[in-house]
TrEMBL record:
SMART domains: MoCF_biosynth (SM00852). The keyword Transferase applies. Residues 178-317 form the MoaB/Mog domain. It comes from Mesorhizobium shangrilense. The keyword Translocase does not apply. This is Molybdopterin molybdenumtransferase.
Length: 401
């Protein structure tokens, strides 16, 4: 079977992937969620002409020239407006956010006022009409579309929705990714290991990648290398309502690589398996009704690189988001040899110098080496059959952090 090019694999994986439903959530729980519909203002803000400063509401005609003496006839704190009318040579003590009293058309800030005692004040700076007043609807008016569908609810968006008087918002459901590790050799972190055993590490990074694009994660633990054991966890994932079933390992051609048989046995139709990519060649993708199955390769670096390139865009799309890889132009910090037919994602340290970014590949690129992946902040992307390149040659880097 010919190896599938990376771009084609991504296209096939994302084909038909859209938002996985909507739900109403309380605004306090809506941070980082994606709007399933626009937010429309249910009120006007400010709902009245409001003072923007602490001071005195007055008539501009009275405070246009100095000296100006006014008598204070009342008070207007925020939340309790003054009922009367400000007449000639009168003022109302006012505080930020309070409604402008009738008759007044300017606010003299209190720094520009001297208290004369007995309810009299002297204004020390001329103040023009409209000063320090927030006009009704300055921020928004009832019926305005304030936030578009698809908007991520960041801090400003959340406060705006609240101000528009929405206690709940309709957001896209977070897709559920069920993760199944496979392998007789695997035990969870913190275990006493036997001589042939290692720690199961992939699920942790894969779960974090899924969560970083808003997905929920169901960690189903580790299945032994037996078809029934894997099938039991796949059934659990289906019962839990997983949108994506992510398997770890068992995707290549070894006698114990059972994932393909188990998933097809549970009703998966295979879409592709084996990519022209390094690391990540054994990546598998198929569909089981509405559930998407992503079989990640077992080698830890392959598993995480495939999460970055395929799982994150898929889960983002199912959650109503767009995920763009951060690919930048750089120069090679060391020579690289010619590439073969697999698109290569080469672990590298990317630094900035006076002329831009310099990406220096690590000398060893074994896809079991997690420490090197953690040390890398970028992946140099080498196209299939890229010719040898000298240090200083231009390259593309996918930034990881
Ligand atoms: N004859 C061939 N052999 C292999 C091929 C191939 O094309 N022909 N592909 C190689 C490549 S590339 C990769 S990547 C691996 C991936 O194979 P599997 O997906 O079947 O993974 P396993 O065999 O189950 O495991 C490989 C390796 O990774 C370790 N592993 C697995 N799961 C985890 C986990 N959750 N946490 C940590 N480490 C894990 C496992 O112990 C193995 O060392 O196959 C090559 N072979
Ligand atoms: O996914 Mo494998 O590296 O290509 O180790």
């Amino acid at each position: 079977m010919a190896l599938v090019p990376v771009a084609e694999a991504l296209e096939r994986l994302l084909d038909g992937a859209g938002s996985s439903g909507r739900e109403s959530v309380a605004l306090m729980d809506a941070a980082d969620r994606v709007l399933a519909e626009p937010v429309v203002a249910l009120r006007t803000q400010p709902p009245f002409n409001a003072s923007a400063m602490d001071g005195y509401a007055a008539r501009a005609a009275d405070v246009a020239s100095m000296p100006a003496r006014l008598s204070v006839i009342g008070m207007a704190p925020a939340g309790r407006g003054f009922d009367g009318v400000v007449g000639k040579a009168q003022a109302v003590r006012i505080f930020t956010g309070a409604p402008l009293p009738e008759g007044a058309d300017t606010i003299v800030i209190q720094e520009n006022v001297r208290d004369l005692g007995g309810g009299g004040i002297e204004v020390t700076e001329p103040t023009a009409e409209g000063r320090n007043i927030r006009r009704i609807g300055l921020d928004f008016s009832k019926g305005d579309i304030l936030l578009e569908k698809g908007r991520l609810l960041d801090p400003a968006a959340l406060s705006l929705a609240a101000s528009a008087n929405h206690p709940y918002v309709n957001v896209v459901k977070r897709p559920l990714a069920a993760i199944i590790a496979t392998g007789d050799e695997l035990l969870p972190p913190g275990s006493e290991l036997g001589p042939d055993q290692i720690i199961s590490s992939n699920a942790y990074g894969v779960a974090a990648a899924a969560q970083s694009v808003g997905a929920r994660v169901l960690d189903l633990g580790i299945a032994a290398d037996r078809k029934e054991a894997i099938a039991a966890l796949v059934k659990k994932a289906v019962e839990a309502g997983a949108d994506v079933i992510v398997t770890l390992g068992g995707a290549s051609v070894g006698d114990h690589d059972l994932i393909h048989d188990v998933l097809t046995g549970e009703g998966m139709t295979l879409d592709f398996w084996k990519l022209a990519m390094r690391p990540g060649k054994p990546l598998m993708f198929g569909r089981m009704g509405n559930i998407r199955c992503v079989g990640l390769p077992g080698n830890p670096v392959a598993s995480l690189v495939c999460s970055q390139l395929f799982l994150k865009p898929l889960l983002a799309r199912l959650g109503g988001r767009d995920h763009r890889q951060d690919v930048r132009e750089a120069r090679l910090g060391a020579a690289m040899s010619a590439n073969d037919l697999r698109q290569d994602y080469v672990r590298a340290v990317v630094k900035e110098d006076a002329d831009g970014l310099v990406a220096t590949p690590f000398g060893i690129q074994d896809s079991s080496m997690l420490r090197m992946l953690a040390d890398a902040n970028g992946l140099i992307v080498r196209a299939p059959f890229a010719p040898a390149a000298a240090a200083g040659a231009p390259c593309s880097v996918l930034m990881l952090r």
